[in-house]
Structures are given as C-alpha cells and as structure tokens.
Amino acid sequence: MARAAVSGRLAERLRWRVARLVSFGDETEAARTLVFDVPGWPGHLAGQHVDVRLTAEDGYTAQRSYSVASAPAGSQVELTVQRVADGEVSPYLADVLEVGDQIELRGPVGGWFVWRAEDTAPVLLVAGGSGIVPLMAMLRVRRAAGSRAPFRLVYSIRTPEDRYYQPELRHDDPGVDVTYLYTRKAAPDGARPPGRISAADLHSAGWPAEFEPACYVCGPTGFVESAADLLVSLGHDPSRIRTERFGPTGG
Amino acid sequence: MGIVSRGFQGRSRRSDPKLPPGQYLTDDFPVLSAGPTPRVNPDRWEFVVATETGTRHRWTWPELLALPSERPTVDLHCVTKWSKLNTSWQGVSVSTLLADVETAADYALVHAYGGYTTNLPLEDLLDGQAWIAYRYDGDDLAPEHGGPARLLVPHLYLWKSAKWVRGIQLLLEDEPGFWETAGYHDYGDPWREQRYQGD
Amino acid sequence: MTYELAERYEDGNALAGPLAEIFAVDITSATGRCTECGTSGPVATLRVYVHAPGMVARCPECDHVVLRLVRGPDSAWLDLRGTVSLRFPLPPATD
After folding, report:
1. How far apart are the first and last CA of chain C?
2. What is the mean pLDDT of residues B15-39?
3. DSSP string, C3-62
4. A181-210 pLDDT, tens digit each
5. Sign of the CA dihedral C21, C25, C28, C34?
6. B135 and chain A in contact, CB less than 8 A
7. Residues of B whose CB is below 8 A from C49
8. What's the N-to-C CA distance of chain B in angstroms?
C-alpha cells in the first residue's frame, strides 16, 4: 500500500532548520532528553529520525542522526541522547548545550521504520539500550491518538538504573505490556537471571507468531541482528520485522 | 556555512601551516572502511603483480617477509580531512617488488581482499614513494588498519593506500577504482587538494 | 550471540537524510534488487558503512555493493550499479 511519509513542500523537508533548546531532563546518568523548538517543523511520524548538524567557529561540522522521541506537537521536537565515551557530538549535546543554544536539524527522514496510528495489528517493540527512543515515540503516538492496537515492549538494558522514560513506562497504558530484560543484574524479583535477550524471553514477553504482529527492533547493530534472528526462529514472518540499527555505540 | 553552535569544538584538531590545505591534525588513527574487514589467513595470503601482457609475479607471505624491508616514517592525509604525522611503518618498497617486472604500462590498478580497488600512475609507486607495509608503530599491522599488509603511498590521499592489498595490475590505460568511480579524484594530490573529480 | 561488534555498519535508515537531498520521496522504503545475488528488500535493510569517504550500502546477504553516495562541496555522486532497479511506493496517480 502506497502511503507517503509526512508530506510537505519538498524544499522545506530538505533543508537544515535551526532548533533552539527550550528544556532538558536526564533520563539516566548517561542519557538526556532535549526538547527543541523548531520553527516551521512539518511534523513527523513515530520512528522517524533527524540528522543533527553542529558547526564550530572555524566552520568545522559534525553530523549525527537521532531518532525523534516525542509524538508530534507543533514545533516541538524531543531527542534523547546517550553520551558516547570519546564521542564528538553526544557529549556536546548531553553536557554543553544550554537552554537557548541552537543546533541544526534536517528532517524528519525515514519512512520504513515507522508506525502509524491507523495500523490496528498487534505491535511488538524490541529495544536494546538507546534503541528505546524511536519505539517510545510509537508508544506516545499511540497514546495521543487513542489507538487500541495492542502493544508489547521488550526492553533490554544493563541494569534497572539504565531504563529511560521512567516513570512514564511504568504507567499502566491500557493495551501496553512492558517487560524489562537486564543483562548485567538480576530482575528485582529475581525471576530472571541477568543475560542477553533469548528466544524464551521473546516467546514469553512477545506476541505469538500466529498473531502476525508488526515487529520493530531497534538498538546497536549486534543486538538488532540477534533479536531479529530470534524472532524469525520463533516463526515471525521476516517481512513483518522492521529494524533500525544504530551502529556499535547505539547512537 | 550553518549557524554556529555555541561551545561546540568537535574532535580535537589543530591546523598547522605544514599541512596540506583543508587538513586537520589528529592524534588518534581513525578507522575508515567501505565494507567488512577481510580476515586473511597468512597461509593463504598472496600478492600478485600482473602485467599488461598477462605475466604474473607472485609472492607468498613468507616470501614477502624475506624481502629486504624498510622502516619509513611518513605523514598520512585522509580525504576526510584528518592528517596524522610521523607514522612509523615497516614494509617492502614497491620498487623492490617491481624490480624484475618487465612492463610498458604507465598505470596501476591496486586490488585488495574484499574487492576494493584504487588507481594511480605506475611512476607514483616507484622511486621510494610506496611500500607494501606489514608493521605499524612497532606491531604487526592490525586488521582494521589493513593487516596483514596494505599499500602505503603517502604522497597521495590515504584512500590510495589500499588496505588488505593483494595485488597490482599494470595497465596501459588508467582505470578508475572504487572511490574514483564514485566521484573522487583520479590522482589525489593532497597538496593541490585534489579530493573530487574535477578538482 | 554476536553482540561483540565485528563490523562497523548501520543500516539503510542512515541513508534517509543524505538521500533526501536527491530523491523527492523517502528512499528507505524503496525496494532494491542486488545485481550479484538477486536478493530483494527495502533499502532500509542494506548494511551501510558510514565511516568512509562516502556512504557504502551493501547487500545484507552477500555484501555486494548496492549503492554508493559521495557528497562533495557542490555535488552528490550517487552510484546505483549494484541494484537492478529501485521500486518506490507512491500514492496512486490522480489523473
């Protein structure tokens, strides 16, 4: 079915827009959510990302891509940035950028790794670390649209302290089940020992393949490939699995 | 130029009048790659020089290591704008490898494991301008930097110094390689800032 | 489990921004077909090497180069020789 992503005057979508930081909040010790005001923002779909460009005084530039974390809300765009050790861009965004400062954004871009509120099929979201960001946008768009599509989120992180979007993800959104998988610490109730995502995890926390859910998997390349392979081994149709790899450091 | 973001510095870089135009000095050694890192077993490694008549000269890994080697210290200039000065290598001069090769060719197409290619004039590989290098900074050359062996031709942009080198094809006519067919310059002299076709 | 990062690639979603400068529609949903092994799939599933003098997108099955993009100061060089064609989903024609 042919559906365009957010349409708009072509010239508007291509160009770099100035984004001004209006507020921020730390999700964890390593990750910060930045709220930008982007005049002229054409809106976006859940799952899309932006390219961020920073220019230094001598004209040197650096660009990185970040998934949009928020549901569309006028000219407001939220990104959640994880500090990468020795990174060039993320330490600047997470530590140096102050309210009132400006960066440049291009987008929104990406039309494949997208969930639309008109979709009614069950959805399985599988997040590795900072891969939760675009999936959170999907949960937020679902809530804002009053969608009843049943969602299950399987969120793999090292420890409970590494979870983003608390307490928002702990609220009981009707029709949303959240399961956390910890790779470095046992679950608080001790039911699951620490370890990487397994077929058993996806079997118990995900949807059965017969439900033909739309699956979205996001995180570092290695995680995404493992998780996608596990879903296929559980019988999910590969064409129903959409993936977004962040590269080794997870964005 | 885009708007300047207050306080953004970027990767530590210094410009230096001794650098080619547009380059920054770096202290680390960035790894750039167009594909998966080839893993080549030295038992199966070979280096082949093929002339325009089809004659092939071949060296195995032990044969390469048995050849007289040099320890050049050279500056590296990458087209992505970083430069790294005074890097130490060990390798066989390409002049040594080509000493007994009979050819009327003017051009070379360098081949690497994994399919990468790059072209340059044959004369730029001679006269002490190029090596097949297998040690960097006192250690065996690591795979991500082109090990077991790479071409090193530092007077041109670093994309000409093909990692995972496996041979040189001598040609009567210039044949553009991987990046040259995608918009990069056929020659690539950093001092004349020949980054892209047409520069 | 292969978490240990053996290779530094991302996926075709990384092409969305750079190719938005060239294509009027999103490219990540376009379907390509590898000229080497015939595998078809969305551009979003290509393995994209971004730490290079340009972007190199390879077939996820056979690693053949499907697409390359070099962005110069006043041009973008797009090489598509590794795909038979690209099929873009579009809204129905309205005439």
Report:
1. 52
2. 90
3. -S--S--EEGGGGHHHHHTT-SS-STT-EEEETTT--EEEGGGSEEE-SSSSEEEE-TTT
4. 999 988 888 889 999 999 999 999 999 999
5. negative
6. no
7. 33-35
8. 21
What pTM did the predictor assign? 0.90
Question: For the domain B44-192, what is the CATH superfamily, name and number?
Answer: Oxidoreductase, molybdopterin-binding domain (3.90.420.10)
For chain A, the structural domain boundaries read 10-109, 123-245
Q: CA separation (Å) from B137 to A201, A211, A251, B147?
A: 46, 57, 31, 13
pLDDT (average), residues B128-143: 97
Percentage above 90 pLDDT, chain A: 83
Confirm or reject contact between A180 and chain C (CB < 8 A).
no
* Chain B: touching chains (3 or more CB pairs < 8 Å): A, C
In angstroms, the Cα distances linking B117 to B81, B159, C9 are 21, 10, 20
Output the CA–CA distances (angstroms, integers) from residue B198 to B119, B120, B122, B180, C71, in the order listed.
16, 16, 21, 11, 14
CB atoms B5 and A101 under 8 Å: yes
For B66-90, what is each residue's pLDDT tens digit? 999 999 999 999 999 999 999 999 9
Domain boundaries in chain B?
44-192
Nearest to C4 among A1, A112, A222 (CB): A222
pLDDT in tens, C20-54: 989 988 999 999 999 999 999 999 999 999 988 99
Count chain B–chain C contacts defined by CB atoms under 8 A.
55
* The residue to which tokens 């130029």 are assigned: B1
pLDDT at B129 over 60: yes
B8 touches chain A (CB under 8 A): yes
| CB-based contact A92 B8, cutoff 8 Å | yes
Q: Which fold has domain A10-109?
A: Elongation Factor Tu (Ef-tu); domain 3 (2.40.30)
**Number of C-beta neighbours around residue A192 at 10 A:** 17
| Res A42: pLDDT | 93
Confidence of residue B150 (pLDDT cuts 50, 70, 90): very high
Using a CB–CB cutoff of 8 Å, tell me whether A42 touches chain C.
no
d(CA B168, CA B162): 11
What is the rounded average pLDDT of the residues A113-132? Answer: 97
Question: What's the CATH fold of domain A123-245?
Answer: Rossmann fold (3.40.50)
Residue C7 pLDDT > 80: no
**What number is the ipTM of this complex?**
0.90
Residues of chain C contacting residue A113, judged by C-beta atoms under 8 Å apart = 13, 28, 44
pLDDT band, very low/low/confident/very high, at A7 (cuts 50, 70, 90):
low
Give the one of A1, A4, A112 whose C-beta lies nearest to C44's C-beta.
A112
Residues of C in contact with B31 (CB under 8 A): 8, 51
Tokens of B163: 């990692």
C-beta atoms of B11 and A62 within 8 A:
yes
Q: Please indicate whether, in this complex, the C-beta atoms of C49 and B37 are within 8 angstroms of each other.
A: no
For residue A6, pLDDT beyond 60: no
